[in-house]
């Protein structure tokens, strides 16, 4: 699908008769053609309804505002919807946060360059200097915001100034600092984190060490939206790898790194393609 | 969803504007509520469009014919659709074909008893007597139709008489005879087969022996619709397991048996839930 | 390998020079030929050493005692080993505990009949009557030992009398009662349990409900040895399946049942093939 | 294990009594301590025996030749073994061949830099200029050897001159030219290739296109040693990913790229760790 005049509409409302008919008729009347559509109902009786619709309409990019006003009046308000629309010709802007590990960061940057992630990445924020050279080689700003226990509030304020409200998504690519509720609130965008365990197992610190101690036969990684409660946000994607008694913490860390970067990349891509909706503390992902 | 007055509509037509609006409006006007809907387009420009819609409508079971006549007139014919509708209160009837291996057959029978497969299973046809006792214990007819090279045509004619046009689906649960094009044509129902390799690798006889010889590190199983060309029908589902140099043919066969029964059960369930559409030599599966 | 005159030797001791040479020379001098051997060291410097050796020796079954006396004197005691030897011509005896769910129980019984599990299964103990008919049809004793909060101690005493010290392994095939430390001690055999989550996630009750609430994208099952601490025993095997937002608790339970029976069957088979050694709270599994 | 004075011994011979005892006693007598050992027999009666032994011996690096002479005399020749020994303090040298795709090449280079691949990589040969900048940034020689149908023999001769017999392993990281039997013979080292399908399915050109046409539900990648017969060499590792009807060739290619780089990296690492032995047209891999 050509990116011009294409859009993705995500809606959520209480389930009721006639939603699909109203929405598809609206798009039809505005010269749109539905390229792809998916829906989910938490419960056919009194549940919550979710729908993702990709469509194209000639000249849509020139009449975005009129389209949205009409949609609000004829569909959004009558059905009491929460909704948002993304236009394919305006790629979202993404900021990455990292620390010392390079695997997730480099993988995201590589995927964006080869066109796998429909977004612009203009900024890497890190509490260490280690990855500056690799990032700057790609022409991306690298801002060092050191964090210590005492300077955390200041550091977060500095990071917010750097972000400057310019971004649509923040991705924590193995960023090893816990963000305060105040930062999360002030950032005002979704934040995706990668945790190196199959949550809810091994939430918190040192999951590979604890996986080794417990003697699990599978390890995993979890990409989730960041909320105030550590490692408890809505899960977007998880994956695992088999391990054995012969794998020490170093081997788990090496095997896990491959899962982390795959899981994070999938989660970020799905988010950027408007495939993820949050419902209470869970996600609906339209693959 | 209550099974009464519920139905599943599967459609396929060339992609064109307004299909979703027309279909959802039609269901809405016939007092139906869409419980679930999924669609696929092979190509947004001039491709083929597929859609699966689960819906409920009060009293639908009493007005099936009127509903179908109206749908044909107002939606089916205007859009040039192929379509079929299944009513949840009328479970499909399934006949199983088996030979000597019990794993796929017993697994399907056990899943049907525990309510995992929305169908009735009334008949097992086998070219051997081995599994008669286990099948008859469950109160299911077991008909022995021996097959030899010389008697194959007669045996197939006998099997057709036993089937007597009463079934909606035939499942080959490791049935070790190749069905003739004439039988496939005369049976007049979809036929699902389980092949013990990840097709197209190791089509034909003795896949585990050949997997061992080739030294593959994964083995698999494939459930597909039977067509005239052996092991070349549209694939519904596949899965695999890792193996090593230490696995001899006996070990591959044992590991493979677990994959076979899982893959076949998934394929049969998806078919029975009207999730599978055939397009040329491939399937669209709405999970 | 013919089962007669074949054996499997499992050893564990602190790592030190010369273990493999001593053990292999000993077997060689007693006319044995090693068919398979695997070893593991937790740490090359001061770690614990584990080894599994399958071997055959002509007439071994007639000279078991002499072999063991000599091994203890020449290898076991000099190296301070814990060791045990299993003779293939004496299959272990297994008792199964179940409640109302049939999937794990029937799967184990079916695998034993088809020769996948090298053991004898003579007894099923259950706190319910539901599965009696299916078990007795196979000629296996089914003993109903009802358990209530008040009668738990009596019920466990009754179960111990039924077991009568005749068994080498107890398998809890979705047995829904928690065994007391006293029972575990008195039973005197390894006990394998299947838990319907990927431990340590969702230890305790209702893991599928909690998995649904947390919104995980993978569910799993864990086979482990039973210890006094609930769901904290050494893990033998785990596996997982992908799920989505569309899977309700019923779907998770159905998908999970397939993983449970596969994971439990693998764990039981590996235990019966003497592939599992316990080290502190973990297992070494020689696949 | 410290790399100094550590080595890995790989042997293969017809199965016979006393091999393990002889080998472990030999190492013991030369002051060696076995850190890890694994073995495999294709058939306990008259099969082929394979064994991998990691060991350390004080001063081994200074007495390599004496050790090897003694081993040949006391173990290698008496048992008719093929054997080779690798010393951990001498990392193997690896040359990479690539074309235009960067994913496998960059992934191997990144893994080598972070210490996952015990080898030196000094050279990238490519029939295109595309990847020169990224490779040279890492300080690695990049030699462009263009190939056309007419110049193939000359190009291979040029590549051989560049290699100059300095390498222990050649890895084809999505190198899109078929090597002639003469080149394979003259190179004189193992050559590992990554093929973008689960062989033997879709051997030859355009596997993703053919996977899409056949409608498979899983795609895969295969790492194998290169032999004269295209895509038929001994398989070292394979892995797969699930796909659906919605995945077009572009999506299959993207999903497949992640499998390709994981599978190739595992195969190369296992080869470099001396875990892979070839037996006729298959591999024994000691994980």
Largest interface, by Cβ-Cβ below 8 angstroms: which chains and how many residues each? Answer: A-C, 30 and 30 residues
Query: Which class of secondary structure composition applies to the elements of chain A?
Result: alpha/beta
Beta-strand percent range of chain A? 25-35%
Number of H- or I-type helical stretches of chain A: 8
Question: In CATH, what is the homologous superfamily of the largest domain in chain A?
Answer: Formyl transferase, N-terminal domain
Number of strands of chain A: 13
Radius of gyration of chain A: 21 Å
- As for the number of domains of chain A, it is 2
- List the helices and strands of chain A in order: EHEEHEEHEHEHEHEHEEHEE
The strands making up the biggest β-sheet of chain A line up spatially as 7-6-5-8-9-10-11
How far is the first residue's CA from the last residue's CA of chain A? 17 Å
Could you tell me the CATH topology label of the largest domain in chain A.
Rossmann fold
What is the mean pLDDT of chain A?
Answer: 96
């Amino acid at each position: 699908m050509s990116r011009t005049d294409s859009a993705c509409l995500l809606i959520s409302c209480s389930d009721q008769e006639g939603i699909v008919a109203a929405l598809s008729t609206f798009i039809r009347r505005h010269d749109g053609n539905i390229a792809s559509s998916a829906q989910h109902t938490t419960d056919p009786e009194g549940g919550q309804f979710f729908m993702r619709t990709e469509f194209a309409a000639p000249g849509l990019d020139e009449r975005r505002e009129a389209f949205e006003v009409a949609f609000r009046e004829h569909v959004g308000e009558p059905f009491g919807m929460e909704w948002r629309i993304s236009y394919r010709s305006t790629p979202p802007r993404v900021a990455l946060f990292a620390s010392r590990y390079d695997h997730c960061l480099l993988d995201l940057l590589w995927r964006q360059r080869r066109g796998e992630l429909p977004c612009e990445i203009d900024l890497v924020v890190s509490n260490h200097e280690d990855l500056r050279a690799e990032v700057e080689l790609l022409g991306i700003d690298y801002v060092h915001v050191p964090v210590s226990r005492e300077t955390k509030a200041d550091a977060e304020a500095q990071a917010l100034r750097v972000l400057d409200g310019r971004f649509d998504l923040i991705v924590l690519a193995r960023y090893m600092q816990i963000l305060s509720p105040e930062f999360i609130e002030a950032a005002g965008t979704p934040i995706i984190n990668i945790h190196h365990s199959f949550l809810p197992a091994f939430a918190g610190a040192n999951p590979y060490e604890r996986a080794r101690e417990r003697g699990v036969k599978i390890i995993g990684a979890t990409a989730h939206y960041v909320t105030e409660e550590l490692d408890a946000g809505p899960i977007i994607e998880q994956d695992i790898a088999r391990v054995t008694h012969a794998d020490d913490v170093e081997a788990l860390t090496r095997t896990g790194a491959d899962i982390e970067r795959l899981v994070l990349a999938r989660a970020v891509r799905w988010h950027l393609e408007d495939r993820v909706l949050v419902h209470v503390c869970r996600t609906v992902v339209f693959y």
